[in-house]
Amino acid sequence: MSAGALPRLIRRTAADRPRRRPCDLCGAPLAEDHRHLLDVRDRRPLCACYACSVLFQREEAGEGHYRLVPERRIPVRGLSPARLGVPVGLAFFVERADGEVVAHYPSPAGATQWTIDRNAWESAARDCPALAELRAEVEALLVNTARGRSEAWLVPIEDCYRLISVVRRHWTGMFGGDRVWPEIEGFFEELRRCHGTDTHR
């Protein structure tokens, strides 16, 4: 191999290698399994490299512009969605830093939302201690009562954004069509599989 052929081969190999997405904060290449931060000013999720995620690991460091999104996914028992006024099959609830609780409903147009009555939320939390553990802004209570299911999960807020994307991408017609519901069920099946449960309640 000539002296000039080796550098060309190295450059060509590097060019053929897929480029990894950069960290949204520092620009470093991201690992495939990376953490996320939430920009609390505009509630925008950001991909974070290991160094940036460690920087915001401590709770007091996460009280500013960015919050590290937790990774836990926990089934919530003993919750009656009707007490929170859930009129549709899919909804998620986020507690804001000021204590306000906002309900979001994934739809083909994105997510509609409104504020939940504080007394109703506090009443539900008394009977369901998991709600009291919900971390403001970065976690959500995700409720699924669609098509015979009755389940609730405490999940990272990024999961809810992913569910919104699933609904927007696959929804057709007035009632969703044939594609969206298997995709939604697949989303929740992944949650159950990760937690080691396949309970149909």
Key traits:
single chain; 201 residues; alpha+beta; 2 domains; six-stranded antiparallel β-sheet; three-stranded antiparallel β-sheet; 5 helices; 9 strands
Describe this structure in words.
- With 201 residues, the protein is an alpha+beta fold.
- It has five helices and nine strands, in the order αββαβββββαββαα.
- The chain has helices at 5-16, 50-55, 118-127, 157-170, 177-195, and strands at 35-39, 44-48, 66-68, 74-75, 90-95, 101-107, 110-115, 139-144, 151-156.
- It has a six-stranded antiparallel sheet with strand order 4-9-8-5-6-7, covered by helices on one side. Strands 2-1-3 form a three-stranded antiparallel sheet.
- Helix 4 (157-170) runs antiparallel to helix 5 (177-195).
- The protein folds into two domains: 17-68, no CATH class; 74-195, no CATH class.
